[in-house]
């Protein structure tokens, strides 16, 4: 079973990848022992895996909290519910919060762990492809604000990540495809050979061939761990992981987090960013179409949802947390596998790229 170590000195941790981890009693005993544990999940994942996880934590003082599923619930109201629950069970600073679910549960639960008593341990048990390849690794925790996504948050590293690949068997096909957007993102910014491999193996990846899936997850996690180890607080290289996200977050907010899944919005955002790179002569012609072809092959959208326009997109991007001194800060590409941080795109160029993807 693959294990990737994220090297952050005393705050480093293992990311285990493989089937059956949610119910691995020996692993949970190592991680939580007899501590007070709050397992946070959502109303989609809980009926499938909550009992299995709690049973495996025999010896711990296990409590549970189930929240509604969906990005629209990643807000201050539900963060407060988690904090209130920790208070009600009299959780001390030695308690542990376990996030059992996708990126929303991981972000929300991680932020609760970061803020309760100035920080308690938490463990990520991601059950979606998107969370396993990206969101669960790196310590970014947050909730959304009405004016923007992930505007309220903290860096708080988990003590471990248990990426149970068998949970993907119950993941709806649309959510699996959405996770592939983050896989393709990683290839576009760091690994041209991996991108070519994805193009050649798209049908096997979509059919969730076990060997292909394990390679996909491990490759992405190794890249993510290396980036985070080098730049934990996003002072430089880690910002490259936001390729497609400035545009994607704007799409999500403008549609009230109800029209597109996060990965679908990022898919569209990556095509806009690649198109902008081409229009400015920063990368070879054909990069954007190559990217769009792969995204389409994986069943992902590449054009803006109906009703959105460039003016609204630009306005929504003004409060993006990646901006500096009021200037839009975007991740663009020089070629497949080569990304960079750009602050020199003017609004007219950005507008043209958005319109080209409408």
What does this structure look like?
- The protein is built from 14 helices and 11 strands.
- The protein is of the alpha/beta class and 358 residues long.
- The chain folds into 2 domains: 3-170, Rossmann fold; 173-356, Dehydroquinate synthase-like - alpha domain (Dehydroquinate synthase-like, alpha domain), CATH 1.20.1090.10.
- Strands 1-2-9-6-5-3-4 form a 7-stranded mixed beta sheet, sandwiched between helices.
- Strand 7 and strand 8 (148-155) form a beta hairpin.
Name of the top-level CATH class of the largest domain: Mainly Alpha
Strand order of the largest sheet: 1-2-9-6-5-3-4
Average predicted confidence as pLDDT: 96
Strand content: 15-25%
**Which stretches are poorly predicted, pLDDT < 50 over at least 5 residues?**
none
**Which architecture of the largest domain would the CATH scheme give at its second level?**
Up-down Bundle
Gyration radius over CA: 20 Å
Largest β-sheet summary: 7 strands, mixed
Number of domains: 2
- Gap from first CA to last CA: 43 Å
Strand elements, count: 11
Q: What gross morphology would you assign?
A: globular
CATH superfamily membership of the largest domain: Dehydroquinate synthase-like - alpha domain
């Amino acid at each position: 079973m693959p294990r990737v170590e994220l090297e952050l000195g005393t705050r480093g941790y293992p990311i285990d990848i493989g089937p059956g981890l949610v119910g691995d009693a020996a692993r949970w005993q190592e991680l939580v022992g007899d501590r007070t544990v709050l397992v946070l999940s959502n109303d989609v994942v809980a009926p499938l895996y909550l009992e299995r996880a709690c049973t495996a934590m025999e010896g711990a003082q296990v409590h549970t909290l189930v929240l509604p599923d969906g990005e629209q619930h990643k807000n201050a109201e539900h963060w407060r519910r988690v904090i209130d629950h920790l208070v009600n069970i009299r959780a001390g600073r030695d308690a542990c919060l376990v996030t059992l679910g996708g990126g929303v549960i991981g972000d929300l639960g991680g932020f609760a762990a970061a803020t309760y008593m100035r920080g308690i341990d938490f463990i990520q048990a991601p059950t979606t492809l998107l969370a396993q390849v990206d969101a669960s690794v790196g310590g970014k925790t947050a909730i959304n604000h009405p004016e923007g996504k992930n505007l309220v948050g903290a860096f708080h590293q988990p003590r471990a990540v248990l990426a149970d690949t068998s949970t993907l068997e119950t993941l709806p096909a649309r959510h699996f495809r959405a996770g592939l957007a983050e896989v393709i993102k990683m290839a576009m910014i760091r690994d041209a050979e991996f991108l070519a491999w994805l193009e050649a193996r798209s049908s096997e990846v979509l059919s969730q061939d076990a060997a292909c899936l394990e390679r996909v997850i491990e490759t992405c996690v190794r890249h993510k761990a290396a980036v985070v180890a080098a730049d934990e607080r996003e002072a430089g290289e880690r910002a490259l992981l936001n390729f497609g996200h400035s545009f994607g977050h704007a799409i999500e907010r403008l549609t009230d987090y109800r029209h597109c899944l996060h990965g679908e919005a990022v898919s569209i955002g990556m095509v806009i960013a690649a198109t902008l790179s081409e229009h400015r002569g920063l990368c070879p012609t054909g990069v954007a179409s190559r990217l769009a072809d792969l995204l389409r092959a994986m069943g992902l959208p590449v054009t803006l949802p109906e009703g959105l326009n460039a003016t609204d997109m630009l306005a929504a991007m003004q409060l993006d947390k990646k901006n500096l001194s009021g200037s839009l800060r975007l991740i663009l590409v020089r070629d497949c596998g080569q990304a960079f941080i750009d602050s020199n795109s003017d609004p007219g160029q950005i507008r043209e790229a958005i319109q080209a993807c409408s």
